[in-house]
Write a structure and sequence with these properties.
Carbamate kinase; 16 strands; about 400 residues; 2 domains; single chain; 8-stranded mixed beta sheet; alpha/beta
Length: about 400
């Protein structure tokens, strides 16, 4: 059983006094030896503050952060009181206290944590009391080096939880939500959505950036290799299975992979779900590495056992005007969660290849991944160039 855990409660789970008490009971009854709690603002509080500020007019970033952080600053006090009412020793941490642990840059509306400084402060102020006392920390909120309140952006309480879990080297981080873990789709859109037992960190990252609001994508960057990260339902208990998010982004989050022996199957004509379904059924046993689409064409990059036979089969479907085959293609896949928030990476990679006179067959991007397809004869040199460009 995990010894040290960080538990985060979202705003929907803290929308009333009864829910605060239920959450506090979940902590008391969990049986974990060492627990740190991260709390969001009560449901709707931050939205109200943001709307009030909009009605007031133009405000600078520091004032904005100071106001919207009040939701979490209130929640920690109520949660701490709820724990004490159950006879549980606890202490809240507020950004205007000297012992506040989460230090960030001065981007008040979407601050980036200073991990090194935060680790020092967690070691100094949180570690000495955890086990004897339950620390309750504001989610979403930070403080810059000048002592000014900052915010981590909407959904930032998830970031606080995994960052704290990282700095404490917790055995487990538990995100408590109002759903049965991570579902296969938004239940408001798809009522038949099912809870997932587990999902990889890359899959969760893609879903989160694709609109799923269950976990903030930036929070995933702080998960440690041997650390469990679970999403559990508020209606259950902290030990209920929920959904485990498996895997980890490397300490150096840049990961580069290469593939050889690929075929590029290009089809021109009408790109419709029906036509695509027929093609995918035809090559259902093959490993697809990448897909590129244009206005009237689609190219599948795949490891195909018999490329010429695949062309014959696709041609016989008569769902596209024409199909072509290019063999001897290699691929390089660069993966980094920072890609999606940092412009210029595709240009860096393209320039690195251009400087070596390597022609690019295709470039595709997908959330945290940039895939470059080149002639297989250039694969080794291209891999060296890309690794140099993205290091």
């Amino acid at each position: 059983m995990p010894k040290r855990v960080v538990v985060k409660f979202g705003g929907a789970e803290l929308s009333s006094g009864e829910k605060f008490i239920k959450a506090a009971k979940m902590i008391k009854e969990s049986g974990y030896e060492e627990v740190a709690v991260v709390v969001s603002a009560m449901s709707g509080t931050t939205d109200n503050f943001v709307n009030f500020i909009k009605e007031v007019g133009e405000v600078d970033g520091a004032d904005y952060a100071d106001v919207v952080a009040m939701g979490e600053r209130t929640s920690v006090r109520i949660f701490c009181s709820a724990l004490k009412s159950l006879g549980v020793k606890s202490a809240y941490f507020d950004p205007q206290q000297e012992n506040w642990p989460i230090i960030t840059d001065s981007n008040f509306r979407s601050a980036k944590p200073n991990v090194a400084e935060t680790k020092k402060r967690v070691k100094k102020y949180i570690e000495p009391i955890i086990g004897d006392c339950i620390p309750v920390i504001c989610g979403f909120v930070g403080r810059d080096r000048y002592g000014r309140v900052t915010t981590l952006g909407r959904g930032g309480s998830d970031i606080t939880a995994t960052l704290l879990g990282n700095c404490l080297r917790a055995d487990e981080v538990i995100l408590v939500k109002d759903t049965e873990g991570v579902l296969s789709a938004d239940p408001k859109i798809a009522p038949n959505a099912k809870p997932l037992k587990e999902i990889s960190i890359e899959e969760m990252f893609s879903l989160a950036h694709g609109g799923a609001k269950i976990v903030h994508p930036a929070a995933l960057k702080y998960k440690l290799p041997e650390q469990k990260l679970r999403v559990v339902c508020f209606s259950g208990n902290l030990r209920s299975n929920g959904t485990e998010i498996t895997g980890v982004f490397n300490a150096n989050p840049m990961e580069v992979r290469s593939y050889s022996g690929l075929s590029a199957l290009t089809m021109v004509g009408e790109i419709t779900p029906s036509n695509l379904s027929k093609v995918f059924s035809t090559i259902s046993e093959e490993e697809i590495v990448g897909i590129s689409t244009g206005r009237s064409s689609i190219t599948l990059f795949a490891k195909v056992k018999n490329p010429k036979k695949a062309v014959q089969q696709i041609c016989s479907l008569e769902c596209f005007k024409a199909v072509s085959l290019r063999e001897g293609v290699g691929a390089i896949e660069a993966i980094n969660p920072d890609f999606i928030d940092s412009p210029g990476w595709v240009a860096k990679i393209s320039n690195a290849l251009a400087n070596r006179g390597i022609n690019i067959v295709e470039v595709t991007t997908g959330k945290a991944t940039i895939s470059v397809f080149v002639d297989e004869k250039d694969l080794k040199e291209a891999l060296t160039a890309i690794k140099s460009a993205v290091k």
